[in-house]
């Protein structure tokens, strides 16, 4: 008897639908021989939907999505500067609302420099680390405010909220990730010399939880120093744990040095399993190249690997990763730019050629 | 008649005294023929002083420093993890206290990749931009707090404070800098899609002040995207204006790609002239290599160039820059590591060989 997984698909805006189409192709191919059926529900959400209906994410949308086992998201966001979207903030109203409502407290972002992939760093040696970014606290909580807006006396505040509860659970997750990797090394990144309150909370929790993980080596870097190491010695990193904002910044830089944002996958995970986790490429909707089969679907396909892992389908996940790696290695020896669907097809072919 | 400049010198900790010694050598050499006398007061401040007296920066220290025309600072901070410094936070108590008390609202950090200097990016083309980092607001204000500290119910908040007054003055300064550069281009870096309150304040002010500078081209980048461009296309930047925390992060990354933190100079400037401005290398005190003549004094010497510029001694500043550039180009063709003082001496020789 095969298990059924209810998957909510949010293709989104711009290149979102194109890359999601390839991700679903791969998902179908790799699970053909697995005892699992994916039952897909497509949700039309994002800038396009907002322009049609005026809604970003209704309570009904949220309830319907919550009733699924997992979510695959392409990309959301309209054309930058579109006046009709001026007050919409699709990112906050959709992406962040999903992450917060579904308690995605782990934002998992692996960075691997695949063989043959060009890096702006030339040949930086082996790059294989993962950022565990907190997803439900920090400066992302939206607890700011402003007075005297629009006047010369305006004061605009942002509040970063950090709780022992919230930090502990993501730090523990990061220690688990570190324990299960060969190098077993965890780096806390923060700015403890300036953000002293949140900084000491993070440091205390890492020390406390770390006592339960004597096999994991822990060190600490200020966020500014971490950016230096990311470009001078990325091989020093194994697992990074950090807050929501620092994680946002570090993972874009990490993607840039390991082959670009076109290869970076991510999981917004609710490890408790109370809510569906969401898998998405790190890249945005890139409206400038949308609809022309120019987008690289690799990040979306690698997000499928993260999804499969999360569902306990480790073998299928490994097969997707292997097929993607093989495709990436092959593409570096040819100059021909391929259509979005050609990349998906090539990866599907590799999967079919090497059955489970 | 020669003008007298009262210079407060804070050599500080670790490699601070070594690099400041070279900076002062260069200052003396370059101003020999200028109608200016430097009247130096040495302040013993930093971790060493704290360990001796228990004081970080007293009101008397601050008053005495304020009575000077400018400040040259080496580096402050003790050995990381030194238990005697556990509750001291020299960075906050000294460096940030000076920046805030002396209203250093412009933190000016140029990034230039000098010819022949190795970059982790290989050959990224011309890199020549300057970050205008706000210095007295943002998440650096220390307006955070925590409740139930040390318990599982701790909540630790940090407040980023941004005012129209504070943003306007630094943005205006950045527009002036941009107007006086050949490319006349200003990039605002923020995270407006998440930090909506402070983000809209920054965007509004940039738009308003920008209307007075029609000759300056303005664009905007999210901070995460900015890190990508810094490693994939640093040549796109001319002047960056950003808040205190983003500026901290971006300037370390900027230093890393343009020859390393050993070359990065900075000015903490009070453009109003009500308080002395402070010039310092971006690097820290590096206690691990202190006292062994291993530190590169170039960043401290380039900070002297910024100091001279600030004092209106543009010719002397240009001579220091030229001598440093020549030294940097020469060093790339030799492998010999030089002692800290040898670098200073070499730059002084170049200055003396090419008189004003
Ligand atoms: C779109 C934006 C809100 C989002 C974030 O800041 O988290 C994005 O940059 C990301 O990293 O997923
Ligand atoms: C030492 C620290 C407080 C300081 C800062 O964060 O501003 C440093 O990183 C810098 O950039 O000058």
Which descriptors would you attach to this protein?
globular, alpha/beta, 12 strands, Isopropylmalate Dehydrogenase, 2 domains, homodimer, 356 residues, binds 3-isopropylmalic acid, two-stranded antiparallel sheet
Radius of gyration of chain A: 20 Å
CATH third-level topology of the largest domain in chain A: Isopropylmalate Dehydrogenase
Roughly how much helix do the residues of chain A carry, as a percent range? 40-55%
The structural domain count of chain A equals 2
Low-confidence stretches of chain A: none
Mean pLDDT of chain A: 95
Describe the structure.
Two copies of one chain form a homodimer. By secondary structure, the first copy, chain A, is of the alpha/beta class. In chain A, the strands form two sheets. Chain A has a ten-stranded mixed beta sheet with strand order 2-1-3-12-11-4-5-10-8-9, with helices on both faces. A two-stranded antiparallel ribbon of chain A has the order 6-7. Chain A contains eleven helices and twelve strands. In chain A, a hairpin with a 7-residue loop joins strand 6 and strand 7. Chain A folds into two domains: 195 residues, Isopropylmalate Dehydrogenase (3-Layer(aba) Sandwich), CATH 3.40.718; 140 residues, Isopropylmalate Dehydrogenase (3-Layer(aba) Sandwich), CATH 3.40.718.10. Chain A is globular and about 60 Å long. The two termini of chain A are 18 Å apart. At the A-B interface, helix 4, strand 7, helix 5, helix 6 and helix 7 of A face helix 4, strand 7, helix 5, helix 6 and helix 7 of B. Strand 7 of chain A pairs antiparallel with strand 7 of chain B, so a sheet runs across the interface. The complex binds 3-isopropylmalic acid (2 copies). One 3-isopropylmalic acid sits at the interface of chains B and A. Chains A, B: Homodimer.
């Amino acid at each position: 008897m095969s298990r059924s997984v209810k998957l909510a698909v949010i293709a989104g805006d711009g290149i979102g639908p194109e890359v999601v189409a390839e991700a679903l192709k791969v998902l179908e191919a790799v699970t053909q021989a697995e005892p699992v059926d994916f039952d897909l529900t497509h949700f039309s959400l994002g800038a396009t939907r907002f322009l049609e209906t005026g809604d970003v994410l209704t309570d009904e949308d949220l309830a319907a999505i919550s009733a699924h086992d997992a979510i695959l998201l392409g990309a959301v966001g309209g054309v930058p500067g579109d006046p009709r979207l001026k007050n919409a903030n699709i990112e906050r109203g959709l992406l962040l609302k999903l992450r917060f409502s579904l308690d995605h407290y782990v934002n998992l972002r692996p960075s691997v420099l695949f063989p043959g992939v060009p890096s702006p760093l030339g040949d930086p040696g082996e790059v294989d680390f993962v950022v565990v970014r907190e997803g439900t606290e920090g400066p992302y909580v939206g607890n700011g405010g402003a007075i005297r807006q629009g006047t010369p006396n305006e004061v605009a505040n942002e509040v970063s909220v950090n709780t022992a509860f919230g930090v502990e659970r993501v730090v523990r997750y990061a220690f688990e990730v570190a324990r299960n990797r060969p190098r077993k090394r965890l780096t806390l990144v923060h700015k403890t010399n300036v953000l002293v309150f949140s900084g000491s909370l993070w440091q205390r929790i890492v020390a406390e939880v770390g006592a339960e993980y004597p096999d994991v080596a822990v060190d600490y870097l200020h966020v500014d120093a971490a950016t230096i190491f990311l470009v001078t010695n990325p091989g020093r990193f194994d697992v990074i744990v950090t807050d929501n904002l620092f994680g946002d910044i570090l993972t874009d830089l990490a993607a840039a040095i390991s082959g670009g944002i076109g290869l970076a996958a991510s999981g917004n995970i609710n490890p408790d399993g109370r809510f569906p986790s969401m898998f998405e490429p790190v890249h945005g909707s890139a409206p400038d190249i949308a609809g022309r089969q120019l987008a690289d679907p690799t990040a979306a396909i690698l997000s499928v690997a993260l999804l499969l892992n999360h569902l306990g389908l480790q073998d299928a996940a490994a097969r997707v990763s292997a097929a993607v790696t093989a495709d990436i290695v092959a593409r570096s020896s040819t100059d021909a730019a391929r259509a979005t669907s050609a990349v998906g097809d090539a990866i599907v072919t590799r999967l079919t050629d090497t059955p489970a």
